Structure formats: C-alpha cells, structure tokens
Amino acid sequence: MCRFDPGFLECRLCPRECRVNRFEPGKGGYAGFCRQNHELRVAYIGPHFGEEPPLTGTRGSGTVFFSGCSLRCSFCQNYQISRDGMGRTMELRAVFKSIVEMIEKKKVHNINFVTPDHFFPYVFRLVPMLRKEGCELPIVYNLSGYQSVEMLRIANEYSDIYLPDFKYSDPALSARLSKCKNYPEVALQAIAEMIKQKGFLDTFETGAPLARKGVLVRHLILPGKVQNSINALTTLFLEFGPLLPISLMSQYTPVVPAKDPDLNRALTPEEFDQVYSHALSLGFERLFVQFPEKNHSQDQFFVPDFTRDKPFPTPASHDSQCSSGNNP
Ligand code: SF4
C-alpha cells in the first residue's frame, strides 16, 4: 500500500469522515472511529455457510472478515472482530494467496468481503489481482449500509454483489446503538446507489441457484425494537418497491451485556411474527426469512467465535436460511 494513499492520510473512507491520518496513532493508539490504522488486518478467511442460499450454495461463500468496523454497533454479533479488533496484520500479497488457496481447495462460490469499508484501498487492489489470476467468481461486498456514495462509485468497478444492511429507520436508535444519527438517510442513499449500479439480486430473474450480480438488503430484527423494524421495512418498500430482495433475520443473540435491557435477550416469536407479517402485508415478493424456531438450536452456528480456527462450525445441512415468496 502506498505510504501516501489519500484514503489513509485524511480518512474519508466511510461517512464518519474522521479525516484523520491513519499512519499516526491518535487517542488511545487509534486515529479514527474504526480503530484501525493503515495496516491491513484480517480475522478470518474461509468458507462460510450462513449466508442466504444463492450465496452459500453447496460449497460455501468465500468470506474474508476484516478486523474493526466503521459502525461498531453496541450489539454486534461479531463483536470480537468489529469492536475488540481481533485479527492479525497481513501483507496484501498474503491475503491474496490465502484467498487463492481457499478458491482452489474449498471451491467456494464467491469472494465475500465482510465489512471492508475501512480497508477499501486494499480491497480495490485485491480484486484486480484476483481477476488477473483468472478468478471469475462474483465479488461480494457485505456491508453495514453506512457507506458513502462517493466510495461506492469507486467500488462499482471492483464489485458484483452488494449485501447491505438496513439496520435502522429510527435516527435516535442509530445514534444510541451505533453512534450515528444519520444512519437512516445515509444508508438509503447508499442502497439506492448500489441498486443503480447492480440492480436487484439476479437469481430472481435468472432462476439460477447461485447469484452473480445484484443487491440483497438485510435487516436484523432487534428484540424490543419491533417498531424500528416495521418502519425500516415500510421505508424500503416505499423507496424501492415490492421486488427489492430482502433478507429478514431473527438470529439476534446477546453476546455482551447491554445497557438496554431488551438487548440482553433473544427475539420472541411474537416480535418476529409482527415484523414478518408486516413484510408480507406490504407486499414484498422476494423474501429470505430466517424463522426464529430454527435459530435457537443453532445459536452456536450464528454467533461466530473468532478465537477458534474455524469461527463458524460447518452445519450438517446448509439450510440455515429459509425462504418464502418468489425465491429461486
Ligand atoms: S474508515 Fe475509520 S478512520 Fe476512516 S472515516 Fe471511517 S471510521 Fe473514520
């Protein structure tokens, strides 16, 4: 990585726009909100079977989990890497070699960069390296939804599929849990840009079992925050219409003690039903739905442990995501 890369010298890689020099340590040793300096840090590279069926397929999605996060939600299910910064510093070439090895040995269906925003300059170099090596797998960006349109326009050339979250419709909630009051407006603009670039997830049009291009929006239902979910779905429907592919997730598991008592428990079946019924009543036609009764026996599967060599136990079957509506 170039020592003078402007992305790290006055960082505006995400909408926080900290404008810090990530080559220099700041308060507490970290310059910006994401708590990552200019060095590439990675927590896990390997197949993951917990994505939606068109991404997981039969051999898994080839994930690259980066350390740190520009959102750092208080309830993050991957808190070990997003908040605690677990992972190791790696040279770009070493990451490239690990990905190539994963492709060759595991035959994964895609390359899935999970929360790459704060390392975008590295990712934008990795993708051409992979293409030059002959890799034609779809490049997936697995995102928080808190991305700037400016960065997404650069990412367009280096991506095929976007998996953005739309976490909050309520700015007060996003301010409290993720320290960003402007999440709803920023995420809506970001998702609009992603759809403009890639369209909706293509499997709904092609009928193919595996996705090659497009956008799938995810929403994790939080316990005690049903109205946030209902309003988020309504907003998405009004903005993008009934054909927007949505993944409704009920896997929330308390991982660290939260100040908000709701977040210290799992979602109830009644809460899930309220949100799911609302999605159906709105008329969304392309839904992936993770039903809660499936999760409780699979908590271990959905909450990764990055202290292990394999943070995600390989399930006996890969049907962790159920689907309804017009799914392939
Ligand atoms: S990537 Fe990190 S340092 Fe850069 S603007 Fe975002 S939070 Fe701040």
Low-confidence segments, ≥5 residues, pLDDT <50? 296-301, 316-328
Cofactors, ions, other ligands: iron/sulfur cluster
Number of domains in the coordinates? 1
- Ends: how far apart? 41 Å
Reported by name, the CATH topology is TIM Barrel
Morphology: globular
Assigned CATH architecture? Alpha-Beta Barrel
- Number of helical stretches of at least 4 residues: 13
The total strand number stands at 11
Quick overview of this protein structure:
This protein has 328 residues and is of the alpha/beta class.
Description:
The chain is built from 13 helices and 11 strands. The longest helix has 16 residues, at 183-198. α4 (92-106) packs across α5 (120-132) and α10 packs parallel to α11 (269-282). With 328 residues, it is an alpha/beta fold. The relative contact order is 0.13. The chain has a single domain, classed as Aldolase class I (TIM Barrel), CATH 3.20.20. Bound molecules: iron/sulfur cluster. Iron/sulfur cluster binds at residues 11-14, 16-18, 20, 32-34, 70, 118.
Which key features would you list for this structure?
alpha/beta, TIM Barrel, 4-stranded mixed beta sheet, 11 strands, binds iron/sulfur cluster
Question: Strands, helices and their partners?
Answer:
Blueprint lengths: L5 H4 L31 E8 L4 H4 L4 E6 L12 H4 L5 E2 L2 H15 L4 E4 L5 H13 L6 E5 L5 H7 L5 E4 L6 H8 L4 H16 L4 H4 L7 E2 L1 E4 L5 H15 L5 E4 L19 H14 L3 E4 L2 H4 L3 H4 L19 E4 L3
Parallel strand pairs: 2-4, 4-5, 5-6, 6-7, 8-9, 9-10
Antiparallel strand pairs: 1-2, 1-3, 10-11
Bound molecules: iron/sulfur cluster.
Iron/sulfur cluster binds next to loops.
